[in-house]
Amino acid sequence: MPAAAPGTRLIASDWRSLEAPELRLAWDGLARRASEPNPFFESWYLLPALRAFDPAGAVKILRFERDGVLAGLVPLHRASRYYGRLLPHWSVWLHGNAFLGAPLVEQGAEPGFWTALTKWLDRQGGTGLFLHLPHLPTNGPSCRALAGIAAAQDRPLGLVYREERAMLASPLSPEAYLEASLSGKKRKELRRQFNRLGELGELMVERRRDDRDLSGWIDQFLALEHSGWKGGAGSALASHQATTHLFREALHGAAARGRLERLTLRLDDAPIAMLASFITPPGAFSYKTAFDERFARFSPGVLLQRENLSLLDDPQVDWCDSCAAADHPMIDHIWRERRAIGRYSLGLGGPVRRGLFRALLRLERGEIVTGAEP
Question: Domain 8-164+340-365 class?
Answer without folding.
Answer: alpha beta
